[in-house]
Amino acid sequence: xxxxxxLRTLDIDWADLEIAxxxxxxxxxxxLDLETGEVVAIIDERDLDADSVAREPERFEDIPxxxxxxxxxxxxxxxxxxxxxxxxxxxxxxxxxPGALARCMERLAADVHLFNNYCMFEELCIYERLMLWLAxxxxxxxxxxxxxxxxFLISSPAAV
Length: 160
Hints:
- The chain is mainly alpha-helical.
- The chain contains seven helices and five strands; from the N terminus they run βαββαβααααβα.
């Protein structure tokens, strides 16, 4: 029988964790502090946090990045959940083409309602992935991820 991993309960800043997870191209390395739940971002080796991570590597867990493949998986799942019709057919045809992610994002951005639905769907998928990642390390978040979409506020016409 597998040995149970003892859970530690941490205060997780979901917004910081999501940003670190999404940012896999800037060159910034992000870590989760397994004692405090804080997200530590290291821009270069002279950063003060880089010294802390180097001194106590067992205390910090490298935050995985959201890959292009995962982005495509989320996009496919979103398209599959759309009701039958012109939008779903159009997005399905775009998903099968080169540059699918960019083409689909362009199409989604043309329809605020559809874009907001995609943002909500994507965020839920990301939080699900992050909760599984935390559990695999024996971390339990003291509070669940936000229930409402954060990107919706950015894209909403009312927010402009």
